[in-house]
């Protein structure tokens, strides 16, 4: 049996992952904190590895929906766990498990942060309507963490806002259409 997508080296260390780590560090002179959503596919672990290889003091808040907290559950349990089920408006963040290699990279340095679907919807509306970005709920999770107070930055903070696969009908239903 082959490696699952989250465990593939190409996903953990793809070219975009390396660029993201370098760009994040440009926004965090001298340390700071980064916030990345966790969906189980591997790029966040790759970003984390890239950050920590270049600047060990950088902290990474890993943001997950309350209804899909696979990384937070695994860190709390000690070993990698598989959730029974997941549910969230952030449908790109619904892994039952974060993957073995992801977990190995993130377990000792990640700071899990959980956000409610209400916070994700509010951040999706704010990013789309007020900031003019096209962001799906999964991509708004890090912003939701800060706007809701689940993540209180102690200093310079960079958030990864990704996920432009927004369905216009879904955004309209959420009240996030421009």
Short description:
The chain is α/β, with parallel strands linked by helices.
If you had to describe this structure to a student in words, what would you say it looks like?
The chain is of the alpha/beta class and 178 residues long. The protein is built from eight helices and four strands. Strands 3-2-1-4 form a four-stranded parallel sheet. Helix 3 runs parallel beside helix 5 and helix 6 crosses helix 7. The N terminus is likely disordered.
List keywords for this structure.
single chain, 178 residues, alpha/beta, Rossmann fold, four-stranded parallel sheet, 8 helices, 4 strands, 40% helix, globular
Fold topology:
Elements: H1 9-12, H2 15-26, E1 33-37, H3 43-54, E2 59-65, H4 70-77, H5 100-106, E3 110-115, H6 117-130, H7 141-148, E4 157-159, H8 168-174
Helix pairs in contact: 2-3, 3-5, 6-7
SSE pattern, N- to C-terminal: HHEHEHHEHHEH
Give the CATH topology: Rossmann fold
Instruction: Give the mean pLDDT.
Output: 78
Structural class: alpha/beta
Number of helices, where a helix is a run of at least 4 consecutive DSSP H or I residues: 8
Q: Unreliable runs, pLDDT <50, ≥5 residues?
A: 1-15
Share in β-strands: 5-15%
The percentage helix is 40-55%
- How far is it from the N-terminal to the C-terminal residue, by CA? 45 Å
Can you tell me the overall shape? globular
Number of domains: 1
CATH first level: Alpha Beta
Cα radius of gyration in angstroms: 15 Å
Strand line-up across the major sheet: 3-2-1-4
Q: How can the largest sheet be summarized?
A: 4 strands, parallel
| Number of beta-strand segments | 4
CATH architecture: 3-Layer(aba) Sandwich
């Amino acid at each position: 049996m082959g490696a699952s997508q989250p465990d593939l080296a190409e996903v953990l260390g793809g070219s975009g992952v390396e660029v993201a780590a370098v760009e994040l560090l440009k926004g965090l002179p001298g340390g700071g904190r980064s916030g990345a959503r966790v969906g189980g596919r591997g790029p966040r672990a790759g970003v984390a590895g890239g950050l920590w290889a270049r600047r060990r003091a950088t902290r990474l808040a890993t943001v997950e929906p309350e209804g899909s907290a696979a990384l937070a559950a695994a860190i709390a349990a000690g070993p990698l766990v598989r959730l029974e089920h997941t549910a969230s408006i952030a449908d790109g963040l619904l892994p039952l498990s974060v993957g073995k290699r992801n977990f190995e990279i993130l377990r000792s340095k990640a700071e899990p942060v959980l956000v409610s679907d209400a916070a994700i919807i509010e951040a999706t509306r704010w990013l789309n309507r007020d900031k003019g970005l096209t962001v799906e709920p999964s991509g708004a999770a890090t912003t939701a963490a800060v706007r809701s107070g689940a993540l209180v930055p102690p200093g310079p903070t960079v958030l990864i806002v990704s996920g432009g696969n927004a369905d216009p009908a879904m955004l309209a239903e959420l009240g996030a259409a421009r």
